[in-house]
Amino acid sequence: MKRKPDHGFPGRDAIVAFIRANPGKVGTREIARQFGLKNDDRIELKRILRELADDGTVAKRGRKIHEPAALPPTVLADITGRDSDGELIATPAEWDTEENGTAPKIRIETPRRPKPGTTAGVGDRALRGVEVTDEHAGTPYRGRVIKVIDHGRTRILGIFRRNPDGGGRLIPVDKKQAGRELNIAKPDTGGAEDGDLISVDLIRTRSFGLASARVKERLGSIASEKAISLIAINTHDIPQVFSSSALREAEDAKPATLQGREDWRDVPLVTIDPPDAKDHDDAVHAEVDPDPNNKGGFIVHVAIADVAFYVRPGSALDRDALQRGNSVYFPDRVVPMLPERISNNLCSLVPGEPRGALAVRMVIGADGRKRSHTFHRMLMRSAAKLAYAQAQAAIDGRPDDITGPLLDPILKPLWSAYELVKLARNERDPLDLDLPERKILLKGDGTVDRVIVPQRLDAHRLIEEFMILANVAAAEMLEKKNLPLIYRVHDEPSQEKVHNLQEFLKTLDLPFTKQGALRPAQFNRVLAQVSGEDYEPLVNEVVLRSQAQAEYSAENYGHFGLNLRRYAHFTSPIRRYADLIVHRALIRALGLGEGALPTDESVETLAEVAAQISVTERRAMKAERETTDRLIAHFLADKVGASFQGRISGVTRAGLFVKLDDTGADGLIPIRTIGSEYFNYDETRHALIGTRSGTMYRLGDVVDVRLVEAAPVAGALRFELLSDGQTIPRGRKRDGGRDERRAAGFGKGHSKGSGKKAHKERKVRNKKDRKPAKQKSGKSKRGKSWM
User: Fold this and answer.
1) Does the record's keyword annotation contain Transmembrane (predicted)?
2) Which one, of 356, 361, 362, 345, lies nearest residue 378 by Cα?
3) From CA 405, how far away is CA 388, in angstroms rounded?
4) Contact assessment for residue 215 and residue 200, using Cβ atoms and an 8 Å cutoff
5) pTM for the full model?
6) In angstroms, rounded to a whole number, what is the distance separating the alpha carbons of residues 713 and 381?
7) Number of helices (H), then strands (E), in the chain
8) 723 and 704 in contact (C-beta within 8 Å)?
9) CB crowding 5-24: b at 16 or more within 10 Å, else e
10) CA 632 to CA 449: how far, in whole Å?
11) Which contiguous run of DSSP H or E holds residue 99?
């Protein structure tokens, strides 16, 4: 029943109670409908909601309003234990404690007759539907198991070190288990050799001394070229062996034919990829639009491998692909989402071979905007396989034997179309961060040869912009057909993060005014102001950390970073499950034949899939990052004592994290080793500041360091600081006239860094810093993917 008090608007408490009772489902429209508010009342309602958001009572996610840091209706969670009543308790598998605080607890309700696949226990990971409850103190959510994703394990991964008696010890590779070695008796070694990477089962714990374990599997020598990525694969339980039924389906698959397809084999589509790419799932072509009503415009074709033709809903290939969620890329190997016969053979758009594809034909106006688009299921034949640098060199006047004949008929029209598309992109003004990505090049034995920063070329930007256009076209088409889909969404930064960014920019005398709705252009104006300045990398880093992380969702709340209202991943179905769902939806929407999205596929079902593949994406990112850290730590292990130059990449109460210029390696400088005074952590400045001298070390500062210790298995480095910091001048004012030195928390013996409390904190910190610790802060934020 709609409720509206006689005296006017519903009270704030009533509005908040309604939002709390419907987590993730309430927007302005739903609130107005619930309380019987008319159109004229909505201005006042929006004002009230804005006040509630400003004081932190509610938060906005796209068009939906919820309690701050509320869980979505469907979440992937880990069962961590039981409460005093014996009920299972779970916490979200992915939770940013720095941003949202302690992860909320979910009380699991077990039905009398659970459905198959929904019986879970402690240690299991499962998809859960959740809702808010006030019944149990300290447990704000209750939920039900929708599907068990992974059962708990007692297996531990580590390095085997042999003892003289023939037994050995396990040194865990998981940093959380650091220092907790396990004893392995001689009969339980399983033939493991010193230095082997092994997995063990815990068989006995003791009150005193080492716990005991039994070797379950030998994974190879830590010195072998495959061992480093194997650590991450096994630590994060990334599936690397396909089921026999999936492999059988892949082997039985036949090449696509012209049956039920348009014939595009004469269209000179080309693939442009990195030189070491194993699969090619997108091809492009452009030509001048002959339509006199679109003078100066172009027609752009983007063809994408027709994975849906081979991977049918509910098949063994489909089940394996969903479990993986995406391919995982390591410097020494790829763990693919699909078997090699599918990904590198039947679906790879190799030159000269007929391949099935799903293509979008886009008409681009002279202003660079997409005027219209159509989708086609067709048979194509790639005209050439090009590398980015190879295509760029041809455009720059240095064609080779392959690109020479392609330059005028194919490459120049592509670049001309790109010049138009850039006009619309610049007008859209998406977030424009300049953060170079490093790439590790390996020797034949799998060890690091060198680390490079590949040059960012127009060829890269061309493909990126054409793919974005195709992704937008897919989302628009499916919305027009009113079909469910999985969006790629990116929320705007939280108010707290924007406030923290504003406070930081004040320390650099850089304005950041938030007027009206937040837009990427506001961040871009700041980035433009610091272009070419010494602190440009610092500001780029802090702006990146202020952003939310992109994810997959069945609900659309737009893509903030790209400044797009609707966006879906369509262009990489070989390596991303989300794209496969979009392909199936397009086939169903347009009646394009076999492999369509099932008619019973609902928004609720896709929400579960979106939650699962968002987690697998983050799992892959973490595994890739950890492998890079371990490889570089191995590379630097014999360089202990050498000096390097780098930038401060993270500032925490534990110390400074420094990224080296030449390798991009990250390491920690423990705070206890910095100078001869106590240092306070200034969160606003992203700095450590000496309480006596005012010496300051800030995020982005260039410093010289000495490598003190390298722990290759953990991927950790420890540095010693060689550079002097900046000094805050006496009498410099900020924050309404407060002395900046006083504001930083130091003075004549009365700073928060002096006295017994500070001495106790230093003792605790010194204990923690005896061993190198892999970074917890600074690194994780930089790893965020917002595309």
Assistant:
1) no
2) 356
3) 17
4) yes
5) 0.77
6) 46
7) 19, 36
8) yes
9) eeeebbeeebbeebbbebbb
10) 10
11) helix 97-100
